[in-house]
Amino acid sequence: MTVPASYSLPEKTVGLKGRVERPAPGTLPLRGDLAHIALAEDFLAAHYVIPHVRQIGPQPVALKLAMRDDADTGATVDAGAEIELLDCAGDWAWIACGPKGPSGYVRLDALAPASDA
Questions:
Q1: Residue 27 lies in a domain
Q2: Taking the model in full, what pTM does it have?
């Protein structure tokens, strides 16, 4: 898997700085337990992840707002699009189209096979 070279650890101390509006589900790659590393200076999460670059498989996919087939749908990502894999749980992957989103869940088999590079 490829890791984006453009993401690095925050240079400042990360911590609570006052009230922050929580973004709508399916927008920024931010959950209560995990967030994209690029959001570390603006949002507090228990853990931050440097994503792995992957691609959507041969079919476009709808990003789900939860790990369920019947969950509400957010954005649609085109077949072959480059995405960032943030987390996997069971048959599901939490992905984002970059640190500004959109983000959501897709079935792991919706992703193209990982390259060995």
A1: no
A2: 0.84
Contacts of residue 53, Cβ cutoff 8 Å, sequence gap at least 6: 1, 2, 3, 4, 82, 83, 84, 85
Contact 14/41 with Cβ under 8 angstroms? yes
Backbone phi, then psi, for 3, in 5-degree steps? -110, 130
Question: Kind and range of the H or E element at 88?
Answer: strand 82-89
Identify whether 3 is part of a domain: no
pLDDT digits (tens, 9 = 90+) for 31-64: 989 999 999 888 888 999 999 999 999 999 999 9
Is the dihedral angle over the CA atoms 53, 92, 96, 33 positive or is it negative?
Answer: negative
Residue 1 is classified by DSSP as: -
pLDDT of residue 38: 94
CA 17/CA 19 separation, integer angstroms:
7
* Domain count within the chain: 1
CATH number of domain containing 100? 2.30.30
- Using an 8 Å Cβ cutoff, are 105 and 66 in contact? yes
How high is the pLDDT of residue 12? 65
